[in-house]
Amino acid sequence: MLRSRHTLRQVLFASVLVCAFAGPPHAAAQTFDLPPIDKIVNYQPKLPLQVFTADGVEIAQFGSERREYLPLARMPKLMQQAVLAVEDARFREHAGIDFKGMARAALAPLLGNRMHGASTITQQLVRTMLLSREFSVERKTKEILLALKVEQAISKDRILEIYMNEIYLGNRSYGFAAASQAYYGKPLDKLSIAEAAMLAGLPQNPHYANPVANLPRATRRQHTVLDRMQATGAITQAQLAQAKAEKLDIKAPGLRSLTAGHVAEMARRAVVERFGTEAYSAGIRVTTSLRSTEQRAAHDAVQRAVLAYDRRNPWRGPEANEALPSATGPELEKAAAAALKDHKDDDLLRLGIVTAITSKAVQVQLAGGEAISVSGEGLSWAKTALAASAKAPVKLQRGSVIRLVKGETGAWAISQWPQAESAFVAIDTRTGRVRALVGSFDFSKQPFNHATQAQRQPGSAFKPFLVSAALEERVMPATVVDDLPFTAANGWSPSNSNGQFAGPMTLREGLAKSSNLVSVRTLQHTTPNRAREWSARFGFDAAKQPDNLTLALGTGSASPLQMARGYAVFANGGWRVNSIVIEKITDAQGRTIFEAPAQEAFSDDNRAIPERNAWVMSSLLNDVTRSGTAARAQSLLKRSDVYGKTGTTDDAVDNWFGGYHPSIAAVAWMGHSQPKPMGDRESGSRLALPIWIDFMQTVLKGLPVQPLGDAPPGLAQIDGDWRYSEWANGNWVARISAESGVQYAVPVPVSTAPATPAPSSSEPTPTQTPPPPSPVPTPPQ
User: Collapsing DSSP states into helix, strand and coil, what is residue 685?
Assistant: First the structure.
């Protein structure tokens, strides 16, 4: 009661002072040394640096204040009604001070009622932007006088607009538009009455009564808002009951509807390097080349594949073990929530703590407060830990902090954070625009961007670029190469992944089966130096590729993005594209301050490789996805217009699949950040290819199949396969033998060529006389 009487005296005294100085505003300003109100009148919000996809979906915000400025005209009426109902029901009637409200608040304790705040929205705005929050008669008086000045200077609508965009609402959110995204992950105009009421209740105590920090307290405040909305006529009695019964889905801090942390970081770095740290509050907007649907598909595909691999290995145990009281009910719930507060939740790998264990099920409380039960198959991965003794190194028990995933059927299963990493990148084959990019399993745990920064051995995924070089050295798809033991002069003796040798096979078969011996003998003919020079045409750094025969096994280095650019050359018919991530940067007023240039128009003058080379390579890579090491691609996608190559390095340290559809080239990689084996039975086909297929199922859905099309000029189809026209009648490499080396096909006179019957064997008639080598033109810059 003493506190109430003290507050009553302060309010009454401040009111008396206001009445005494209710003359011209300048007189009050001189008496109380009031601060200028320019900060409100000429309001300039601190707008964060925002990053968006090409189709307008927000990826990230950077800045101390999360804010999304929304003019009052676009602020939903429901949200306005909720705020006014609980904060200032007479806002449209008073002149900045609600004397009726002040009197009601002052008399409440004397009448035995709970005292409520009497500050108007204008007063709250003044207090937030111009004054301290320390309560004193002087500060309260200044607040009242400043509120009167503000009401004289700007309109009611402008005051409400500033308030609804400036007020702090917890969870780093300023303004209701930002709070809607922070707590619900959706815009204001998508909120229900119950959700809007929850937000409207936050200004009173945003730090400790928001739904993330204290859901019960926030719910009580929400019900107060709903009661006021019904009392003021904003909602009906039926809507009130329905809203109070609605269970809200509150988003855990840090969870976003679209995950693209590595691209967001690329954008942030680019902007800050150009504009400095002021960019964090200047309202700069970055539009990236990402497509939200494709980015979501890529992120989900990476996470599914990594978790699938992780489940093929033993469960490593709980993340931590916390002490829980023996109590039940609310006390246990509170203790469980406290035990999880220092652990990070995730939208896929949900955070939980074991509260009870029975013979058939494990009871878990999630970080969001939901109680779930895990049983049956959901416990299978951890069954050893469940049965372990108390002293066992891996033990699941009450208080264990664990990760869980929710299956498609709604059943929960025990999971864990994976140790393996993965990367994925997809680019438009004609513009180079990056349509999806995932740099690791989870950006918050591994910010290193494996898609752009990691230089890893590409393994057999690099073979197509070596075959492309060989085509210019008269090696054709029908060239027969021995898949037999090989030993170099220095004693190096490579083998196939299965340790077996298949004997003579065509280059086409060798690429489809990923024969290392075929690749080595073909490169020996091309020479490593010529192949390295040729690889530069695809955008690879020739200096990072070895100048010896190990290049045939992809022992150089490249990033997934470089690999995607390389495959795009095959897809678009022979042109190199520049990869673009940042499309446009605009300032707070919407003015463009940077725009990425368009891809240079394709012409014969800027080709990377001949059109016929690209076409033949697509023919070869189509066999890989039809009947070779990536046959699951065409089988599962149920379409023939996909092309690509798997890659697996020694001990499955690096696992790849690179490929393309005519419109999009994409590369998937899986391994560890610090290189180490993934397992004896793992490979690019088992680890990376599923990511690529998963992604393409989303991207290509509904698109008609695009056949390879007619062969371009300069090719001839002979004996069921393709050759360069100038070698149709001979002088092409017919055979690369383990015993006899390179053998060229005997030239056939042009006049008799049409009547010459095809050889009875699969091997063309050879000659030992080699033609002069083909020059390797300088690659485009």
Answer: helix
Query: Residue 601 has what pLDDT?
Result: 94
287 with 588: CB under 8 angstroms?
no
Residue where the block lists tokens 């902007």: 271
* pLDDT per residue as tens digits for the range 93-120: 999 998 776 666 555 555 555 444 568 9
Q: Which of 58, 65, 68, 87 is catalytic?
A: 87
Active site residue 762: no
Indicate the helix (H) or strand (E) that contains 379: none
DSSP 2-46: HHHHHHHHHHHHHHHHHHHT-S-HHHHHHHHTPPP-HHHHT----
Pairing of β 58-62 and β 66-67? unpaired
- For the stretch 582-615, pLDDT in tens is 999 999 989 999 999 999 999 999 999 999 999 9
- Candidates 165, 123, 113, 171; CA nearest to 144 is 123
Residue type (1 letter), 325:
P
CA dist., res. 624 & res. 630, Å (int): 6
The C-alpha atoms of residue 198 and residue 225 are separated, in whole angstroms, by 8
Phi, psi for 402 (deg, rounded to 5): -135, 170
- Residue 764 DSSP one-character state: P
Catalytic residue, from 440, 460, 468, 559: name it: 460
Burial degree of 248 (CB within 10 A; 0-12, 13-18, 19+): middle
Q: How far apart are CA 569 and CA 369, in angstroms?
A: 51
CA-based torsion, 509, 511, 517, 521: positive or negative: positive
Q: Which structure tokens are listed for 670? A: 């899986």
In eight-state DSSP terms, residue 549 is: G
Active site residue 726: no
Coil, strand or helix at 390 = coil
SS (H, E, C) 42-57: CCCCCECEEEECCCCC
Amino acid of residue 405:
V
Residue 72 has pLDDT above 60, yes or no: yes
Cα Rg of the chain, angstroms: 34
Question: Confidence band (pLDDT; 50, 70, 90) for 758?
Answer: very low
Q: Locate tokens 């002072």: which residue?
A: 17
Q: What is the DSSP letter of 492?
A: -
Q: Distance between CA atoms of 649 and 672, rounded to whole angstroms?
A: 13
Looking at per-residue pLDDT, the higher value among 436 and 185 belongs to 436
b/e per residue, 63-81, with b = 16+ CB within 10 A?
Answer: bebbbbbbebeebbebbbb
Q: What are the C-alpha distances in Å from 746 to residues 177, 476, 730?
A: 76, 15, 5
Strand boundaries in 642-751, DSSP class E: 643-648, 655-661, 664-671, 715-718, 721-724, 733-737, 741-745
How many angstroms separate the CA atoms of 164 and 118, rounded? 18
| SS percent in the chain: helix, strand, coil, step 5 | 40, 15, 45
Please give the torsion angle defined by the CA atoms of residues 144, 147, 151 and 152, in that order, rounded to the nearest 10 degrees: 70
Per the document, the length of the chain is 781
Burial of 709 (0-12, 13-18, 19+ CB in 10 A): exposed
Is the separation of the CB atoms in 721 and 689 below 8 Å?
no
* Per-residue confidence band for 368, with pLDDT thresholds at 50, 70 and 90: confident
pLDDT over 50 at 9, yes or no = no
Given a contact cutoff of 8 angstroms between Cβ atoms, the answer to whether 56 and 291 are in contact is: no
Lowest average pLDDT, out of 382-386, 388-392, 644-648, goes to: 388-392
As beta bridge partners, residue 415 has 403
Q: For residue 356, what are its two tokens?
A: 């009870």
Q: How far apart are CA 157 and CA 180, in angstroms?
A: 21
Q: Pick from 470, 346, 515, 324: which is nearest to 417 by CA?
A: 346
The Cα 618–Cα 439 span in angstroms is: 28
Query: Which tens digit of pLDDT belongs to each residue from 28-46?
Result: 455 568 999 999 999 988 8
Work out the percent of the chain whose per-residue pLDDT is above 70: 88
The C-alpha atoms of residue 628 and residue 610 are separated, in whole angstroms, by 25
